[in-house]
Every structure is written in C-alpha cells, then in structure tokens.
Amino acid sequence: MVEEQPSKKGSRAAANDEAWTKHLPTIRRLYVDEAKTLKQLMDFMETEHNFKASYDDSEQIECRFRRWGFRKNIRLHEVKDEVSFHELTKARYLRNNEEVSSSSVQLASGQVVDVDRLAAHLRRKMLYKRQTQKPFGPTYVNPPEQFYVCEAVLDDTRAYLRGHYQDAFTFTEEVDGLRVTQPATLKWNRFFYRCRGALDHPSRFSQALVLMRQAPEELRQLLESEPASVLNLLFKFIIHVTRCLQNIDDPDDKRQFSVVVRALIRYAASVMAPQHGQQYPLYKLLRTLARIDDDELYPVAVKAWKLSCLMWDDIATATQSQQDPNLIGTPRPRGSAATVSDWLGFLAVAPDEVPLDVEHNINMILQALRRVFGKELARRVDEMWAVREDLAPIEAVGKDEVGSQDRRRMQAAEDQVYSLFNSVVGPGFESKIPKILFLRSLDDAKKALQSAKMAEQYWWSQGEYGRAEAAALWVGDLSGDT
Fold first, then answer.
1. Whole-angstrom distance, CA of residue 470 vs CA of residue 482
2. Do residues 410 and 399 touch, judged by C-beta distance below 8 A?
3. ∠ CA 58-64-67 to the nearest 5 degrees?
4. Do strands 112-114 and 104-106 pair parallel, antiparallel, or not at all (unpaired)?
5. CA angle 384, 386, 390 (to 5 degrees)
6. How confident is the model at residue 286, as a pLDDT?
7. H and E: helices and strands count for the chain
8. Which branch of life, at top level (predicted)?
C-alpha cells in the first residue's frame, strides 16, 4: 500500500499562511495605519522582508485582509458597537493614567482599530451629522444688524410724529396752517438749494465741501426752531448728501466726505439732547442714522421720508374740512395741500417710490383746490403755464445744445413765468391760498420739477449760481416747500 503524500499545493498554502501570519503585524501597520496601497505594501514586503505572496490576485489578498479585520475605512454598527464606544472611553482614560498598554478596540465586524483613529472618526461623524441633519421645527435666521438699525429709524419716525401731531387737529386747514413756511424753514431751504447743485455733481466736490462748512449753524437754527416739516427737511438733506457720497470715485474724497456727513448728523443729535434729553425720538433717530453704513444711509432715508409723508396723510385725513364738502369732492381724497407739498418734494428724489394711490390723491386735491379758489385765479394759472409751454421744445433739445437765440428766448420765458407767478403770490397774495394750486395736476408738477432741475443744472454749469438758486427756489415756492 502506497502511503498518500500530501500535495505540494497544500504544503505551499500552509507555508504561505504561516508566512502571512508571521508578518501580520507589519502588514497591518503598513496597510491600515500608514494607508499604503496594496501594490506599495507588497513591493515593500518583498524588498524589506523577502516576503512575496504566492498569488497576485488582489481580490484574494483583500479577502484575507477582511478576514483579519483589516479595513482602512472604519465601519461601525449602530447597536453592536455601543460597547466599543464605552471601551474607547475607558481605554483612553486608562491610557492617560498609564494603566493599560493596549491602544486598540475591536469592533463588531472584527475590525481592530487604534483608539486615537477611532476617536478621530467619531468626531468627524458627529460633525457631519450636525451639519447635515435637518433641524426639528422652524429654522430661525437672524437678520443682519443693519435691519434692526433701519427699523429703529422708522420706529423713531413714527414715535416723533405720533407724539407731536396725532389727534392734534380738528380741521384740515389747521394742518395746512401749521405747515406754512416759517423763517427758519425758509433760511434752511435757501441753504439747501444753494448746496444741492454742488452735491449733485462729483466734479463740484470741492464746492460742496466749502458749502458744507455752513451746515452746522444752519442745522442748529433749523432744529432749535423745530418746524412741523423738520423730518422731511432732514431726510431730504441726507438723501442728497448720501447721493453725492455714492457718486464720488476718489477713495480719499469719499472717506473725507463720509466723515463730514457723520459728524454733521452727530452734531444734529447733540443739538437736541440738552433741550429734550436722550430719550427724545428725534435725538434717537439722529443717533441711529449716524450708525448706518454709507451704502445703507440713502435707502433708509428714503424709507423714513416716505413713512413721514404717509403719516402726514393719515394725520390730515383724520380731520374735517371747513370748506364746503361739495367743493372738496366726493369721495374726499387722503391728505391735504400740505401733504401734497410733502409728496412733491419726495417725487423729486424718489419718483419710483411714490404709491399709485398717492398720485391719484394728489390730482384730486389739486382739482378740488382749483374749484375752491375760483375761476379768476385758475385763469391766471393757465396763463402762467401757457408761457411755460414755450420752453418745452427747448428743453426737449437740452439747454447745452440750443443756440444763443433760443437760449435768450428760454431765459425770457423763464423770467416771464417767474413774473406771472410773483404777481399772484406777491404782497396781496392771501396766505390761506396754498401755492400748490398753481400746479393743476401731478403732470404739471412733474414738468415743473423737470424744468427747474434742468435750469438749475444749466446755470450751475455756466457759473451763474444766483440764477441756479432762483430756479430751485421757484419750484420750492411753487410746491409750498419754502
């Protein structure tokens, strides 16, 4: 009987298993801890340890690694590996106290993982879960600080107007009477219109700076008088100076003018504090405006001015008219002559922000005033506008493009319009008649604003600052703003 010899293949396999087992710690360190690729691992083992696997099938090698628990990527079982988490904590604690030498944890899959590596894996997993997990309930997003600052300006605007003027009038005419121009208002407006031409063009920056030196004293007189239109006057001024700031290209000039604007707003607040204290709405409003970023100051001032106009509409609408209701019109429009003046001033700087219903109300009020004050005055208004229409072809071309003859004609027509207007609103003019009745409709107002703006810009470009100021003051006077 011939004794059966063990196959060479089986002997090689057994020997091969023994070699693998012998080098297992080194292979694990290279493959798992140092994250070498399979090719890098086998090349290293052959070169350094004269160990060469008897087969080159990478899938079989990786299968052997899986049996041994060799995995580069840690895979945890949510339930079974809870013990491992506890062991991790215990192992790290004991390790810190040098009571154990083991620094590995065996997972439910059989994978043996270094404690530090497992801890790093758990931290990454926890961070990912926090970043991707959908929160329970609504998600709250905190608005930027500038949102709160803007809301504070609007709140202080409401508080000021409600505290001073809400429920303070019985008749609409009282609202209009209160808004009659006071000497301090007229003085401020003359200063403002003198500055506006310089503020509206970047090339006149140096002139604007010179004129702004007068602003503190002019502002002090305005605030000490504190006319009913003070908010509108302040917002209009801030809108123009911030528009100038936005148009400045030179960074140094921009920075310099920004400092001037903020110093002026802070000075305005300091004027109010001694008289009224730091809880006074106008003081708080000015202090808040001084904190707003340069890019946000313009839109905030526009919103606040618009709110002021809307609130004055509400104040006037809550009153009763002393005039015959049949003459005022049915239904009664919101607002009054004074609030129309507010909206005309706002229209000049932010036409797209005027609500459509406000435009309709303006036309209703102007038509009602035309009926109230009689045909003779209406005839003289029509005459003034007929002369003004002669300027339309010249304005369509543009003042800079017309010849000298047309320019003289334009100047003569402007002078005639001013003369006709002044003949009506001169010494014999009744103060109770609102000057806005010279605007027959909102379309008239838009034409007047455009015409005066073109004239103002043209005379500025020619260096005739007196005529430029006169053009601005005329529309201010026409709209009841001076």
1. 12
2. yes
3. 145
4. antiparallel
5. 115
6. 94
7. 23, 2
8. Eukaryota
